[in-house]
Structures are given as C-alpha cells and as structure tokens.
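User: Fold both of these, please.

Assistant: Here is the first one.
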Amino acid sequence: MPEPFSGIIRKKLIESCEELKFPCHKNGTVVTIEGPRFSTKAESKMFRQFGADVINMSIAPEAILANEAEVPYGVIAMSTDYDCWKEDEEPASWEVIRMVMRENVERVKQVLLKVIASFSREQEIAKLKDKIRTIPNFPKQGIMFRDITTLLKDKDGVQKLIELLYDRYKDFQIDAIAGIESRGFAIAGMLAGRLGTGLVLIRKPGKLPAETISEAYNLEYGTDKVEIHKDAVSPKQKILLIDDLIATGGTALASCKLINQLQGEIVECCFPIELPDLKGREKLEQNNQKVFSLIKFNETES
C-alpha cells in the first residue's frame, strides 16, 4: 500500500476539476479517525503534527479493501470545515457541515460525470486509432508513417472524429479554422461546417492565387515554406489551427507565425494524431501556443 490511490483516476479527477474551474488541492495527507464524531483539540493538534491536511472518517478502510481486491481506487475529499485546532473559527456543527456538503455534492456530481465521460472517450479514441494505417519506411527508411486516410474514408470513424473535436471546441469562441495542406483541409473543413465558422487555407508555395505572405521552416534536409492569403485573417480574429498530425512541429509553427503576422489570435493548435517522441508539442508550447491532440503514437509502435 505505498500508493493507495490509483494514479489514473487521480489524474482524471484533477483534470476534471481544472476543466470545470473548481478549486482543488492536488496533494495532501489524510488521517482517518473512527466516527461518526468530532475531534478534541488535543487530537486535532496531534493530527497536524502528523502532517495531516484532511481528517475524515472513511477512505482508509475502503482503500485497503480496494487494493486487496486489486480494484483501482480514487477519492474526492470534500472539505466541510476547519478542525478545532483553528481557534478563531466557530466549532464545527452538523448543521453547517450539511449545508456545505449540499453545495459540494453538486460540484462533485459534475466532476464525476466528466471523469466517467473521459473513460468512455478513451474507448472511442482507441477505436479511432485502430482505423489509422501505419506504413513502415515511408517516405524513407526508418519512418513509421501514420496514414489518417483510412480513418477519413470510414464514415463512422470520421463522424466520431468530428464529433469529438466538436465537443471540445463548441464552447470556444472561434471565428475561423485554419487548415494546413493537405489532410488538414479535410478535417478543418468538416469541423468548420459543424461549428459554423469560416475556413482559412494554409498551403505550400505557389498554390494560392491572390497576394500572400510566406514563412519558411526547416526540414531534415533543407527548408520549405507555407503561405496564406494576406486577407485570409483579420486582426484579432480568433483562429483554431488544424492539421492531421504533429511530428516535429515545423509546419505548424510556421503556420502560427503566418496567423500572428496577420494579427490573428490562435486559440489552440489541434491535431488528431500526435507523435510525442518527435517533440513537436514542446516546440509549439515554447512559442506560447496551446496544443491539443486525440491520438498518440510512439515512434516504434506498429
């Protein structure tokens, strides 16, 4: 029992609180006492010397049973009152605790619903991942190419993909979605239709007919460029940037710079597929860009 709580459940509880903007403490020590009863002042001071952050009348027995049964266990501690060590506070009473509990319970319900939904969402994402084809040694030896076209041609898969992205962005304030050539066009176009936003195209050189600006980025051997129409984005427009995949992040970062040059505001960079080993997320986050992805592939994953 060195770690009595499930790290996975704990992480999901914390993430749900953060998404809901509920204040929460991520770390702490719980002391479980026999109840139902309140502590004496002597006990309260002793528990503080033990390093206790929370005193309660459950958790420990349940945690022991869950670990013996090999059932992942997580807990939300709903703070209701200060223990009696704090002499400038009124002593706790059942009436006050019941009132605070009623308020807390409504929040906990929302947290639990988010956690449950996240487990369901993980199963849906796993199914989408199975629909993505991996092609070894393309476009060169040693590369595992993640081909999203097999997901895009699957009517149920592509609908679920857009549904998951819609659920994430439906409450964001977005004026337009910028899609990066070429697979990013398909995803950005479908999501723009669902969200009711405009669509902006970011292309390779020489493919846009009107006046453009361009941004170069480094490849393993040499450089390349992306371009955008000068009138594609207006100042202060809120833009969601989308490509099918983030690897090293060079194309995405160059695209962000184009939008910034036109004084657009990037709300997030979205990629259905992420290759974490290639550090593209880190490159974007170091340039103050928020990054979201659904499906992750390790470099050697087949």
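And the second sequence with its predicted structure:
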Amino acid sequence: MVRFENVGLRYGLGPEILRDLSFLIPAHSFQFLTGPSGAGKTSLLRLLFLSLRPTRGLVNLFGHDVSLLGKDQIADLRKRIGIVLQDFRLLDHMTTYENVALPFRVMGREESSYRREVIDLLKWVGLGERMDALPPILSGGEKQRAAIARAVISRPQLLLADERPAASIRRWAGGCCGCSSSSTKSGTAVIIATHDITLMDQYEAAALVLHQGRLHIYE
C-alpha cells in the first residue's frame, strides 16, 4: 500500500529533516510512529498524506509513483486517506454533522446516500446531541471526536493520526485505536504518531521510530 525508498526531505535550503527512509506499509496493518520532539513525525505524516513531496527518493502510494502524478491525480489519491492532525482542521462555519460528512460531499455523493451513516457514527463517538453545533462551541474533546469521525467515515485505505500534545492524549489516541481495530480488518492501514509508551505497550503493533531524521522499525 505504501512504499518509501531512500526518501529525503528538506525545507528550502536547510538540512535534511528526514534522511534515507525506506519502509513498506501493507494493508491490514497497524503501527505506531514515535520518536523525540522534532524528529520529523509530522513531516513524515505530511509525506504520507501527499501534502508534501520528498526532496529525493521514491514514494509509492496505492501503486502510484507520487512524483509522476499531477494535482488532480494527487487529489484523487488523498480521498483514499483519512487524517487527524493536531489542530483538527474543523471548518468553523460548518456544523459537526457537516464537518463529518465533508468527505462524502467532496466525492459528490447525494446526502440521502450517507446521512444515516454520518448520524450513526456521530452517535457512536458520543456526538449525537452535538450534530448541529458549530466547532467554536465544542469542547476540546468533542473536537477530537469529530475529527476522528471525519477521518474514518469514508473507510479510508490509509488512516493517519497525529498526536495532540495535551493532557488528553492517551484518551484521544485510545479512541483512534478503538476505531482502528475494526478498520484494519477491512483492509485499512493505520499509523498513529504518539509519544505515549504506555499506549504502545497495550497493542501488538510495529513501531516506526524516528531518530535524528532516520527511521528504525521494531516489529
């Protein structure tokens, strides 16, 4: 599903943030991405989400060499990826329901084909009574759950989650793991970036460890 070969990344004329990354991410897999602050975890997630292109090396996603794709093709591939970032990226002018339904709207689907699915998922994550609320009035935990729901609603082939550096990180990441356990059974590959060693010890998953820009893999 994902293949990196000798990938390097630098911003502008600065030093390489990531160096010589080579790894495979198969379908039906679940792994943690970890490492000290500043190791490049978020940059690697952005490469996986195709919001960055590597400075060098090969990134192959879903069988496509990313360097050969145009903007429209990149946009199509990103529809197959779910992501939860640190700031959640909810749209303040849209209700909770509309934010979670956004992936379906981008696909051009009629609301009648997904409304029940969105409502059921919102109830499952505890937001059934907050469907019509706008993000500015949601609590931090509610925003987290809405962002997770939006990431998984379209059953992505690749699910990425970046940690939230706050006291609720364990509960937030645990929610992702709860969602991901069923996601991996349907073929989704899940990567969760975290510093939480206790959380990692609770699950049988590979650990992708970034250190000084290089990646080490522990099964």
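The first strand starts at residue 2 and ends at 10.
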